[in-house]
Specification:
single chain; 53 residues; 2 helices; elongated
Amino acid sequence: MQPLLHVTIGNKLKKRMKLLVDEGLFNNQAEIVREGLRDLLPKYYDEKFTDKK
């Protein structure tokens, strides 16, 4: 089992996440966080570590 990562989400974001789950776009709030990280991390990684010539 992979170690857990605990994060604190503000009320405004949590309400928005709940709306997306309630609309059926995601199964739960953890899925939203995972999907967001999958999209965001490569962008910053590429900007920092990819040689742009």
